[in-house]
């Protein structure tokens, strides 16, 4: 028998195959046993009868949930079965039989219990499609940048300088020197962009925010990009192209996973079909206030404000030109309104919040020095960053896309903790 993956069964109808996986569930109907097997690519139902293989029939009665096994038989189309195919079993061989009942039964469990058993919960019928969608999102991001001739690079996780202030940093001792877990790779991407022109990286970042919302993690993954000779308008166009590319790629590549999650892929297509909406910060505040959400000019957008904008537009919306006073020191000011920064946040539809933050960067030494001082930050730790403005400075822009929030939106899941294999939150460091 040829060993195949469950997602390939459509290519082997009428043929004998070998499936290697784990027992997800089983049931009986008279003299027929049905075993539901998963292998990481999907689920398939095996039909076991005493006439086909008496030993397999007896074994099907005794195998517990999550026993690993090899199952051989003939593939046939069956629209009523999970995945649309089933296997008429002629061979069933255990690889490992658990010695205790699997802790996560096929019933409802509380989120605390499931998070304590996250290492086992990721095997479930709901979690595996989410993690496959995450993989598709990451591949789509890389494919987009590769097609645009961006160079993949890296940024350090251990850093000595803050990107967005010191209040949300995780400090650590680096052989006697104060250091931090990085909030963003942006400053280092600006350096590599001056060497390579167009660069990106995908990696973990850390924010020590004491937030317990469904949109926050303390460790998450960012896809960040920087491009030389790119202004604010070009930056927004690049972000819009990326998000549309990612959504369309995932919808085309993983329709079965979206169906498994009961996610409306036609809605996702419609949300990115038209040009994204665009409003200024001040226009957005007025819209939020009109929706009855408390917010004042000078406030950043919280979840209720983002939800109001999301509901108003029904598609992704850029909120641009924030007050410079509430944004990081590295953002270039609007020449016509020096109190505003040339920046934007991209808010996803359906209440999934901000998925991208980006800006045109300060490209002149004197401007950067002035804005460092205005932010009350010391010059010495940023000496290398200032060097980028002393030799060959050019207009440049970049952004960071939150991978988990993007997965959360595309998968249509209510809480960000399901969008990453092992989430780290304010009260979660296990497993």
UniProtKB/TrEMBL annotation:
It comes from the Bacteria. InterPro entries: Aa-tRNA-synt_II, aa-tRNA-synth_II, aa-tRNA-synth_II/BPL/LPL, Asn-tRNA-ligase, Asp/Asn-tRNA-synth_IIb, NA-bd_OB-fold, NA-bd_OB_tRNA. Its EC number is 6.1.1.22. GO terms for biological process: asparaginyl-tRNA aminoacylation. CDD domains: AsxRS_core. It holds the Pfam family tRNA-synt_2. Residues 131-431 form the Aminoacyl-transfer RNA synthetases class-II family profile domain. It is an enzyme of class 6 (ligase). GO terms for molecular function: asparagine-tRNA ligase activity; ATP binding; nucleic acid binding. Keywords: Aminoacyl-tRNA synthetase, ATP-binding, Ligase, Nucleotide-binding, Protein biosynthesis. Signal peptide: none annotated. This is Asparagine--tRNA ligase.
């Amino acid at each position: 028998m040829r060993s195949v993956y469950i997602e390939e069964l459509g290519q082997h109808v009428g043929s004998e195959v070998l499936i290697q996986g784990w027992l997800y569930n089983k049931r009986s109907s008279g003299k027929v046993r049905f075993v539901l097997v998963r292998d990481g690519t999907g689920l398939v139902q095996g039909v076991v009868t005493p006439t086909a293989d008496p030993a397999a029939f007896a074994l099907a009665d005794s195998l517990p949930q999550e026993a690993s096994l090899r199952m051989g038989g003939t593939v046939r189309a069956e629209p009523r079965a999970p995945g649309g195919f089933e296997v008429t079993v002629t061979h069933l061989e255990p690889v490992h039989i658990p010695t205790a009942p699997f802790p996560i039964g096929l019933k409802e469990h509380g989120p605390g219990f499931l998070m304590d058993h996250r290492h086992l919960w990721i095997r479930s019928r709901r979690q595996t499609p989410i993690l496959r969608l995450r993989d598709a999102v990451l591949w789509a991001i890389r494919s987009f940048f590769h097609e645009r001739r961006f160079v993949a690079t890296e940024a350090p996780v251990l850093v000595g300088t803050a990107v967005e202030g010191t209040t949300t940093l995780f400090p650590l001792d680096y052989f006697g020197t104060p250091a931090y877990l990085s909030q963003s790779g942006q400053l280092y991407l600006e350096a590599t962009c001056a060497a390579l022109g167009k660069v990106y990286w995908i990696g973990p970042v850390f924010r020590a925010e004491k937030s317990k919302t469904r949109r926050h993690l303390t460790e998450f993954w960012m896809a960040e990009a920087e491009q030389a000779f790119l202004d604010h308008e070009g930056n927004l166009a690049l972000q819009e192209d990326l998000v549309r590319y990612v959504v369309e790629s995932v919808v085309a590549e993983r329709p079965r996973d979206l169906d498994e999650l009961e996610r409306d892929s036609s809605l996702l297509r419609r949300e990115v079909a038209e040009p994204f909406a665009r409003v200024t910060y001040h226009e957005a505040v007025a819209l939020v206030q009109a929706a009855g959400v408390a917010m004042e000019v000078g406030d950043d957008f919280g979840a209720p404000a983002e939800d109001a904008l999301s509901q108003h537009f029904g598609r992704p919306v850029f909120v641009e030109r924030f007050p410079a006073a509430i944004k990081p020191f590295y953002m270039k000011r609007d020449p016509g309104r020096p109190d505003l920064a040339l920046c934007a946040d991209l808010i996803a539809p359906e209440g999934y919040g901000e998925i991208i933050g980006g800006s045109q960067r300060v490209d002149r030494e004197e401007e950067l020095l002035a804005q460092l001082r205005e932010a009350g930050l010391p010059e010495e730790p940023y000496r290398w960053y200032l060097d980028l403005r002393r030799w060959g400075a050019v207009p440049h822009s970049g952004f960071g896309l939150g991978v988990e929030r993007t997965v959360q939106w595309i998968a249509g899941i209510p809480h960000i903790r399901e969008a990453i294999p092992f989430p780290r939150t304010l009260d979660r460091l296990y497993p």
